[in-house]
Amino acid sequence: MSPPAPYSEYIFGPVFNFDFLTRVLEFQTEILSLKTELTNQTISLSDICLKPLEPDNENCTVFSILQYYQNSLENLNKTIRDDFDVFTYFDYTTHFLTCSQAPTTTNDSLGLSCFGDFGGTINPFIVLGNYSDTTYANATALVITIIIENSNDPEKVRIGLLKQGF
């Protein structure tokens, strides 16, 4: 892969291994689809997570590097290559660099937004770890945080406590 300068100057840490990211996406998707039975009622993680744009957007607030790709394998796979299919100009790594420097970008070179599928911004210092200074590209750890909605409603609290058994 040969991204254009200045992107070619970056060394990407193991977090950015494509196979690793696709496995993390599968794992994250499985977590988000967890369900349990409670008094003859099926409750999912989606029932108790924070959805800040509900009812227009039903996606849970999840802080994860994969939100830069809207949790989509199709978006993670997007590339722009030269006419001879030799050089990659833009791909998931260049998209990350764009988003880590400007998290409110709505249309980069790949035609992707940096906003998460829940409608919020993702800051690299929240979803990555063990990087030097502010060079997020050399991260060796990632963090996934699923925000659970807080409530004073006793029934929602009871459901939330049972969900912690996941």
Write a structural description.
The protein has 166 residues and is α+β, with helices and mostly antiparallel strands. It has one domain. It is 29% helix and 13% strand. The chain has 6 helices and 8 strands, in the order αββαβαββααβββα. Strand 4 (80-81) and strand 5 form a beta hairpin.
Q: Tell me the domain tally.
A: 1
The percentage helix is: 25-40%
Rounded radius of gyration (Å): 18 Å
Average pLDDT rating: 89
- Sheet-strand content, in percent, reads 5-15%
Largest sheet entry: 2 strands, antiparallel
Instruction: Please report the distance between the alpha carbons of the first and last residues.
Output: 40 Å
Q: What's this, in brief?
A:
By secondary structure, the chain is an alpha+beta fold. Helix content is 29%, strand content 13%. The protein has helices at residues 18-32, 45-48, 73-77, 92-101, 124-127, 154-163; strands at residues 35-38, 41-44, 62-63, 80-81, 88-90, 128-129, 141-142, 145-146.
